[in-house]
Amino acid sequence: MTQTGTLYFFCGKMGAGKSTKSKHLAKEKQAVLLSEDEWLSSLYPNQITSFEDYLTFSMQLKPLVKKHVQNILSVGTDVVMDYPANTLKLRKWFLHIASEVNAPHELIYLHLEDEQCLRQIAQRRKEQPERAAFDTEEMFHHLTQFFEPPKASEGLTIIEYRGED
């Protein structure tokens, strides 16, 4: 019987570095990297103009992504998901992906202070001007109100990284 791959996923406020860390981890682990931003922008070009649009299209994609990831894990390949696991509900979704195929998992929690996230968002706006409309301080504060730090009681394997501030 083939050993399953490991599922890696991320928790951290907007601007914490989830996408950057996921790219490095995928390369390090020689894992398949799946980016929600890439899937959404490819499948729904110019259709996501608000947070509500993001939620709608993201939910439509979840059943397909879940099955796809489980198929990859089932053949013994590690998967790094650049998808936010920033609420209890989202983390349960990731946990089900792994547990339903008996795959190990790691939640990488990027624990940064708001000021550091905002600095990184400002830098990202300069480097990726196409994201400037969404990558704002107002959007950061809007999203942060929904953020729920992970807890050991959720049954997750949590690896925590703290910011330098």
UniProtKB/TrEMBL annotation:
Keywords: Cell cycle, Cell division
Claim: Cell cycle is one of the keywords in the record: yes
GO biological process: cell division
InterPro entries: P-loop_NTPase
Pfam families linked: AAA_33 (PF13671)
Tree of life domain: Bacteria
This protein's name: Cell division protein ZipA
